[in-house]
Structures are given as structure tokens and as C-alpha cells.
Amino acid sequence: MAIQITRQPENITWSRNPILFEFSTDQVVQDSGRPLIFSLDFTALENEYVDVLHSPEATYYIYADWEFSLSIKESALYISCEYGTPVDKYKIPHRIRPAETKTEWLSRVRLALLEAYNLGSLFNIVVNNQTLVFTSKNNDSSLTVSLASDAEVHPILSITQTAVDISFTPNLKLFVELFSFDLEGNEKSVVSAALAPDLSGKAFWDFSKPLSSFLLQNGTDRPLLYDVAFAKGKVIRSYFLQVTELYGEPQLARGSIRSQTFVTIYGGLPKNLLGTSLLNFLTIENRVNFLTTSRAKKITLDQPQWLSWFNIGDNLSDVNVCVELKYNDGSYYSFIAHTYESIEKFEKVIIPVGLRQIGANSLYPELTVVSYEVKLSANGVQLSETLTLSVDNRYLPYKRFFLFQNSLGCYETFYTYGKKTNTLDFDKDSARVIQVRDFVLENGENIDLDITGQEKEKINTGYKSRAEIKAMRDFYLSKEKLTYVDGLWWPINLGSSSIDEFQDGNGLFAQSFEISGQHLQEMFFEN
């Protein structure tokens, strides 16, 4: 059998969820050893009664007494078959004559010996004609046996086989190496490990974290923030494993196998969905869902928004981004926002779907868009789900846009409209200057050093639906967050360790959270 891959992930996986391989080798044991086998022959021990006493009440049989000492390793086990057995000896039963056969009696002796001194943990004992055969449960060369007795008759010890220790293959390791491909298709070594198999020959390896880092070596799939671009993603890779078996003195490679090629995409599912495959998560009735963690989409007229879609099927051509607008007078208008000439298998597309981004605001300016649907189709066949986005047309003086990378590795936005508060935090070091001459009050003696400032904001989301507020958790958990200020997107950190939530009593909810910029201010200029 040598080395095998006995467990592997699905053909397509999320990179941020465990990507677990199981390997198996039959080289753990170099020599399986052998057990100790010995027997006690009771042929000479008929143990018949030597006299009979009769009384009006009963008949008494008098048996010959005998005893022996069985030494296991360095421990002497004293075993007796006599009346009034001393407390330091273990008593085994007499044979009941004439009703009990010798084989039946040996069966009772076997059970007694299994209990004696916990011998049952060391040996299996079977009855073979007039002998008891002992076989050790472990292959342990330290197991030795001897028998001593002062009685005229006693069991006869015969050693059939001495024990030999089990020996393990020296320096056994499984050297596993993960290979992937860069954007140019060049094979790259990502990470390697030397795994020590357990006693059953199994070893496990999860390399999801280094593989996720490799996917991001050319950056994330953040969309072009200041231009409308129907782009394609770059955080998808093929990968395979090379597994080499090493052992011996000196340690040498003894065999190697290569896995099949798998595909992974940056992103992951929560723990309660780890048992769901990527294909089952994304597909519904032969349609592939957009890579978003929430379908409660609500945007404003000027809010940028993006959707991403992953082609898990065959190569596609002439894929249309289909949009259907619903106006406030109940009318509808459908158009194609963009056509991808091709989308290859295992390719991701990044689709701008904000109303301004797709030019929907200017189609019928006298009407108001209240909602719209987005879907992908090719050759008359719908490829994706139909995603509905509601439009908030209210005047929102405190409106604020946020962009974040969701759990599936894609970018989307949301807006807040509640009031905010600003804070400027300062950090500094202080020192005391000692005036060595006459003390001059105007010169002072305490000074500030290394003064830095950081802007912080307390954001209130404004009241939203339960689904919208629940979807905010993906923003809080995101490693990459940006906010839109004065025409620019700025990276931010979440300053809150807990989130406050409010309810208005009419089924709407709001939350407040703190953000801070990712840079410190050491100098200031008005512009």
C-alpha cells in the first residue's frame, strides 16, 4: 500500500475554511514483534478426592491440596488449590466429583486465573484439552514466565514462544508540499510540512491559511472605486499536493505521490455551514447565486454598489448583465447594462450595479426608481439568481457610504443616515526639564513629546429592517473596511468592541459603532 491520500476536500473549496487532507502509510511498524505464548498442563492433576466422610447430614469429599508460584516479569503470583488458603495466595476452585468433568473444571480454573492478579489485562487464556494456553496481549520482550512448586504434583509449564518487542520505522515522516499557480500559470511552491504519522499510520494537514495568503499575493478583488469597470477577479487558484515518504537511517525518500488538481476561491462560510460544499451553497436549480452574504439589499440613488459572480460551469460567451427597473408609477424598464464577451470556467466577474454606475438614473428622469433586479443570462438561459435591490429615495442629510470585503471575499457597500459624533484623540509622551541654574518660571519645566492625533467617529446607522441590521455583522467581521469622505475612499478600523442596538417599536432597528482612520496625524495643514 505504501503511502495514500485517504481523505481530500471537494474539487472546489473556499480558501478560508479548513482544507483538510488525510494521509496513510503502512510503514509505521518495521517489525510487528510477537507475543509470549505458554501453557499450563493439568494432566497430572486429577484433583480427585482421596477420602470420603459420611455423616447423617451429608457426605464430605476430601481432596489433595497443591499450590504453585507463577512468576510474570519480576512478580511472583502465588496460587493455591487447598482448604484454608492463606490471604497472600490466590485460591482456584477444587474439582467437584463425580458430576464435573475435567474440562468443565479447567473452564472454572481459567476464569479464576483471569481474575487473579489482574492477569486478564495481560493475557488471553483458552482451554485446550487438559491445558490452559496463555497468549500475551502485547508484544513485550520484558514478559517472562517461570513456575515453582514444592508440591509432588503441580501444573507443568511449557513455553511455546518467547515475546519479541514491536519495532517502529526510524525517522518516519511524510513530507507534504503545496503547489499552486500564479496569474501567469507558473507553478509555485506555497508551503511545506513534515508530518509524523500516528501509530495507525495516519497524518492530517490543513493548509487553508497559507493558501489564502497566497491567493492575496497580487491583491484582493477590490473593485475600481473611481471608475465603472466590469472586471474579473484574481483570487482563484488551482493547487495540488506532492507527498513524499521519508524514513531510515539516514533518512531517505522512499516513495512519492501527487494529488489531483483542485480549485479554491478566497472566502469562507461560517462554522454552522462548514458541512456545506461550495457547489451546494452557491447553486439553486442550476443557477449560481451572487457572492453576497445578504439578500436584503437597499441602496440610495447615488450609492455605488458591486456584485460578484463565480462561474462553476463550462466556459461561457456573450453573458449579459440584465437589469429591470421598477418605477414609482408601477411601470418597468429592462435593459442590458453590460455584456461579457466570455467568462471562463472557474472565473469570477465583478459587476458594478449602482444606479449611477449602470446609467439608470438618466433613463427616465421624470420617474423615480423604487427597486430593480439584476441577473446574468446567456443565449436566453438565466445563469444567476435574480437579486432585488430596493432604493431609498429619501433626503438623507447625514448619509454615509461604507465599503467592505464580505466573508465570501467580495466587496459590497451599505449606507448609514443617522447622526454622527466626531472625536479627536491625542497621544503623547511627557518629560520634565530640570533648570540647573536659577529657576525661571517662564521657561517651564514640563514638556510634551511625540504628540499624535487620531480622528474617531461614532456612527449611527439610522433605523433599518431586521435583515439589514443583521447583515451588518459581516461588515464588523471584515478585515478590510473603507468609508467615503469628500469624494475619496478612506481605509478605517472598527473601534468598537461591542455594538449598541436600538429598536423603535415598529419593527425597525438601529446600531451605533465607532470607527477610526488608519493613520495618525503628526502635522496639520488646513488643506
Automatic annotation (TrEMBL):
This is Uncharacterized protein. It comes from Sphingobacterium multivorum. It comes from the Bacteria.
